[in-house]
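Dear Dr. V.,

Thank you for agreeing to look over these. As mentioned in my earlier message, I'm a first-year student in the group and I'm still getting used to reading structure tokens, so any feedback on how I've presented them would be very welcome. I ran two proteins. I've put each sequence directly above its structure. The first is here:
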Amino acid sequence: MSIVYLNGQFLPRAEAKLSVDERGFFFGDGVYEVTRVVRGRLFEWDRHARRLARGLRELRIDAGLSLDGIGALHERVVAENRMTEGQGTVYLQVTRGAAPRTHHFPPAGTPATVFLSATPFVPPNELRARGVAVVTYPDYRWTRCDLKTVNLLPAVMAKQFATDHGAFEAVFLRDAVVTEGSHTNVFGVIGGEVRTYPNSNYVLPGVTRDVVVELAREMGIPVSETPIYRHEIAQLEECFLSGTTSDVMPVVAIDGAPVGTGKPGAITMRLYEALARRLAAASGTAAPATVVA
């Protein structure tokens, strides 16, 4: 049975209980992070911590813990679940806590609810080798998509739309512009240049997204934080998704139409291999065991 952390205690998951007055339950009043674990080590925790700190600040939630303290909890929950080999993820959720239901904030001093759990993870390398199909979906979300809140119903509906249509992911379109996926960032290659929507209030500043942009620049691959418009989708030479559990995932079809050759593109796979090397280096592994041949 997995061990989780909840409000100061490490305990079996089945024994973790929340109050019915929890504001995360009533309002989705909280933020979350999902951090990759490779051979017991957190990947890019500092980037996750910065994004978490910004979300807590913008929502005016006091977690009651320092970022270093939250990082230590991540390491402890990894150890408690014996995730020292292979890969996994740590899920963190911080809400405004439990209090009688009111739309305004609860009284000062109401403790936040802090929850962490760790789950084994197997990278989807067979899927990556052949690439995935995606569908487009209207971006009906609010305009603070840059905050990683637990208000995920629009993402749930979009992902279900993709599932209903046999697709891996739903890609949001706002005013005829590709913004991001339901749980990924989106990249396209046009004229040999990698393009992705710029960080703004309309997209989540993805940790893997930022690492991929950084890697592309280090490798001399042209990259531009420039939106991809609906009419440019048919011009895409390559397309890929990025995310904590997707890494770099090639997209070979959009709304039933092939992207480029209909196979994972060369630039896409170069970026995936660079990311795999970064993951391996972060875990102390000599060589990236997850590179697709």
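The second protein is here, in the same arrangement:
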Amino acid sequence: MRRSLPVLFILTTMVLDAIGFGLIMPVMPDLLREVTGEDLSHAALWGGVLTGGFAVMQFLFGPVLGNLSDRFGRKPILLLSLLVLAGDYVILALAGTVWLILLARLVNGITSATYSTATAYVADISTPEEKAQRFGLIGAAYGFGFILGPAVGGLLAEYGTRAPFIGAAAITALNLAFGALVMRESLRPEHRRPFNWRRANPFGAFRAITHLPGLGRYLSIYTAFEFAFVVYPVVWAYFATARFGWTPGQVGLSLAWYGVGAVVVQGVLIRPAIRHLGRRGAMMLGTLAAILSFSVLVFVENGALALVMIPISALSGLVNPALRAEMSDRAAADQQGELQGALSSLHAMGMIVAPILYTQVFARVSGDGAWIDLPGLVFAIPAALNLMALILMRRRKEGSFA
């Protein structure tokens, strides 16, 4: 029980982190309209600024926090992140201006170390054989929380636009107290290293970890996946509306269906997949499933077929845990935080750059004045990115896959 409680805390943190993020989504448009006095379209513009600002801060400061966790340990960084996150939710609950909301989101972007620090913590306490499964459990926990979050947020919104933020602050504070009680430090003093600003910026962190054997190729695969799967949150709702005429409720149910598939794959299927196929085989299976599903979506005209493809697409969830395990094995004990911080920056980079590309392409292949009336053509981009990742997986230079 003593050994399992810290892992339970990490999984609980991921569930509650995702719930806290998801439950504010339904009410954010109303909050922005309330504080700006503008209509929905102007509120959406502010929503884009908030999302972009958060991603930029995460890109810049992810490696800083990763390097700090390599210097001072995982526990203080993770607990500090939860403390600031709870404070951010309180500010959002009280904010009377859009500038205060923006400030809160920027600070939250700076301290958004929960996922990267949690994965570094799991890497510290896991054997090589356990890493992929535990990384999968982290992904499953986050996915489960993201399924629950919007539903809980919608219920709390019945009590006012500020209620979801108060709820998010409360659950984050409870988890902070739980972690302070049960979390034990995973990074031993002899494995810590001095903080170095040259390695704490995104580009310095990339240089440091790409010098490790095989990491350059793995980072290329990871980047391709991050850029590819941003397509779902960015254009899925618009694509489903344009192609199938779905209502917002149907779009929401389809995303929840994908979330269920992701939870099953990363929480249940990852272990037997690694056992029978190995990491490389599991990664290739997930990549092939992604290529198939994206290719079908390019031409699909039937909404039912799109729903059938969602569980197939969810098999791509096999890739991230196995890939993270491969990269973690090649990083030293005093570089796990640096590695996860760099991966956090790559994720943020995808959230900054990819939405611009996908929305521009979608606008040119759908609606009046389109180059070609084929809304699904936007999915050819992530299909090509996954094909590139598959080619990189098949190469055996710079180290081989287990």
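From my reading of the second output: The domain at 201-395 is CATH 1.20.1250.20 (Growth Hormone; Chain: A;). The chain has two domains: 1-183, 201-395. Does that match how you would interpret it?

Kind regards,
E.
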